[in-house]
Sequence to fold (379 residues):
Amino acid sequence: MARSPLTATRGLRVGIAGALASALVLTGCAAQDSAADPDTPDAPAAAVEPSLEFAGPNGEIPGALAELELTADELVQVQEGDHTAAFVWHTSGDFVAAVEEGARARFEELGIEVVASTQANFDAGTQANNVQTVMALEPDIVVAIAVDPTSAATSFQPILDQGSQLVIMTTPPEGYTAGEEFVSIVTEDLAKAGRANAEILGDALGGEGEVGYLSFNANFWFTNQRDQSFKDWLAYSYPDITIVEEQGFADETATQAAAAAMIAKNPELKGIYVSWATAAQGVLAAIRAAGRTDIQIVTNDLDTTVAAAMNTGGNVAGMVGNGSLDIGAGLALAGAYGVLGKEAPALVASDPTKVTKADLVEGWKADYGVEPPASVTGD
Fold:
């Protein structure tokens, strides 16, 4: 006897339900089997966003540069004090020159005369001699950065013995603390700088590829944290970019050989991070010698040689400026705090500036206060 349409429909529904139930049972069994199988890979854990916090060499928590300010009465007091200042730098270069320019401009506003400026080519012995030379001029304020924190604890002692106010750019001598041996540390925001480097290189590579990591391997809290921040943000923001080789350098003149070896060993290399721009010059030379037009560099500080290569559309993805003029102004203001006997924040930091070919002129002016030279722009 023929079934009615309703009976046929009911039979179809029962059949479908039975099939679905069987499918669910099979799926459940498969899932259980998969969970029990130790060879089945686990789902990747969600990446954790890196922190934008960093700390000074003694655990100082950074504040903003804007925290350094003088009242009108304090300004007059400093201007009438007939004070002098000197610089004891670790090295030379565009970045240091821009910081000093920013400091000199603010010292002039404060009525403070600059009597000396020295640099040590990253040599601790040279810096020790420079301290002796500078202190013969009896400056009231010394702006400095220790080449070697350990030996500087002794070589900077004449500054303390003469009662001069020591202001630090990034790195103080070991054992020195803010409010005691020195007034304050003025630097850039290291976590933000690392993130900016990662963004420049990641975007230049389209979010994928193999890169090298060439970092400063000395115990230098400032550079070490900035380097690590780049690694953290690159891994988080660009999971398809892989650091295939890491090398350290203590002497920036050794970066060309290190980069050449890295390139030869990794033929698929598409990018290299370098701790700072003068060290990146050697990396750029190695890339050119290898005839590799496809490898992109990212680095810190604005440098004329590296910027010129970026402007020609070559091997430089970008650079991260430190807020150099602002750092210089902050150092001068911290010096004023010192001669006033006013307590300053232990550490203050400027915001970095991302600079690529598209915004080279604007970025250079923001960081250095002037347009890039003709050697950079080709004008």
